[in-house]
Amino acid sequence: MAGKKQFDMDTALDAAMIQFWRAGYADTSVGDLSRVTGLNRSSLYASFGDKDTLFLRCLERYAARYGAAYDAALSCAATDPVAAVRAFFDVTLERIADPALPDGCLVAQSAMAIPVLSQSVAAHAKEALGFQRRRLRAALEAGGDKDAEAFAEHTAAVNQSLAVMSRAGASPAQLLAVVGVTLDALSQALRGR
C-alpha cells in the first residue's frame, strides 16, 4: 500500500533485544528503541506496546532462541551427563564468543536489574532463571545424578557467572577454566556413586 512504511517484525524484535542486551533495561530509552528498530515512537507503541511489553517479548525471544540450543545440548544427559553439561556450557561460550552479539546474557543482566524493573518484568526475569535450573535438573536426573538439584543450581549459577565475567572482560581461557572446574566436580561426583 502506497505511503505505508513496511517493517519486518522479527528484525525489529531482534534489534530491540540487542539494545536491551547491550545497555540493559534501565539504560534503554524509548528513543533508543525507536532508533534501533527504525520505527517512530507511535509505530513502536502500536506494534509492541509499552517498553515493559516490548522488553518481555525480547526476553521471551532470547529465552526461546537459547533455550532450544540448551535443550539440544542436554539431550544426551541420560547416557553421558558430563558431556551434556559440557555441551550446555559450549552454548554459552559460543554465544559469548560471537562478535555480532553483546557480551553477557540478557537473562543474567535482567536478573541483576530486578530492583529497577516493574513487578511483572522482574517476575519474568526470575522465571527465565528458573527455566535454566529446571532444564539442568531434568537433564541431570535423567543421567542418574542423585544430587541433580544441587548440581543444577550450581551449574546455572556458573553459567550466569560466565556471562557476567565475559561482560567484565574475562578471557576465553579464564571462562574455560571455570567450566573445567565445574565439569571436574560433576565427573567426580558421578564416579563416586
Describe this structure in words.
The protein is mainly α and 193 residues long. The chain has nine helices and no strands. The protein has helices at residues 9-23, 30-37, 41-48, 51-73, 81-97, 106-112, 119-142, 148-167, 172-191. Helix 4 (51-73) crosses helix 5 (81-97), helix 6 (106-112) packs across helix 7 and helix 7 (119-142) packs across helix 8. It is elongated, with a radius of gyration of 19 Å. The model has no long low-confidence stretch (mean pLDDT 91).
Q: What descriptors fit this protein?
A:
mainly alpha, elongated
What is the strand and helix layout of this fold?
Layout (H helix, E strand, L loop, with lengths): L8 H15 L6 H8 L3 H8 L2 H23 L7 H17 L8 H7 L6 H24 L5 H20 L4 H20 L2
Question: Can you tell me the residue ranges where pLDDT is under 50 for at least 5 consecutive residues?
Answer: none
Strands, count: 0
| N-to-C SSE string, H for helix and E for strand | HHHHHHHHH
Helical proportion, percent range: over 70%
The multimeric state of the shown protein is single chain
Number of helices: 9
Please report which band the strand proportion falls in: under 5%, 5-15%, 15-25%, 25-35%, 35-45% or over 45%.
Answer: under 5%
| Main beta-sheet strand count, sense and barrel state | none
On the 0 to 100 scale, the average pLDDT is 91
> Any idea what the radius of gyration is?
19 Å
The 3D shape can be described as elongated
Give the terminus-to-terminus CA distance: 67 Å
The chain-level structural class is: mainly alpha
